[in-house]
Amino acid sequence: MKKPLSRFIPVKILEFEEIPVFQVGWMNGHGAALPPWCILVGDDFNHNLLRHEFGHFLQYRKTGFWKFYFNIGAPSLLNLIGLGIEKLIFKTNRFIKAHEELRVEKEANNLSRTYFGIKENQRPWK
After folding, report:
1. Can you tell me whether residue 19 is helix, strand or coil?
2. Where do the structural domains in the chain lie, given as residue ranges?
3. Is 116 exposed, middle or buried (0-12, 13-18, 19+ CB in 10 A)?
4. What are phi and psi of 21, to 5 degrees?
5. Do residues 27 and 13 lie in contact, with contact meaning Cβ atoms separated by under 8 Å?
6. Are 125 and 52 in contact (CB under 8 A)?
7. Cα angle value 80/81/86 (rounded, 5°)
8. DSSP, residue by residue, 79-107
């Protein structure tokens, strides 16, 4: 598998369900879906993370570009930013809802479970 040239330059490492997947060093085990273009992952990604990010592509296919980025992408990103700021200030995350508890993240997991035939009690990510 190719390694990123630097922490900031994405390198295409594979295709998942016909979607290009790029590895970015600074993401450290996290991922991001950028429909209709690609999925970004950190160095230590796994197929469960890819399935979760693919769930966001399924949301995109259901809602379209503008609704996806305003109703799903923006809340998800703002939550991550808030969690990062809270951790910097308070050294912990107590006040802001955990990312995986967001409605949009749960929906991505449910769509992914259905698409890949994963049982309800299994998490398609992590």
Report:
1. strand
2. 11-116
3. middle
4. -115, 125
5. no
6. yes
7. 100
8. HHHHHHHHHHHHSS--SSPPGGGSHHHHH
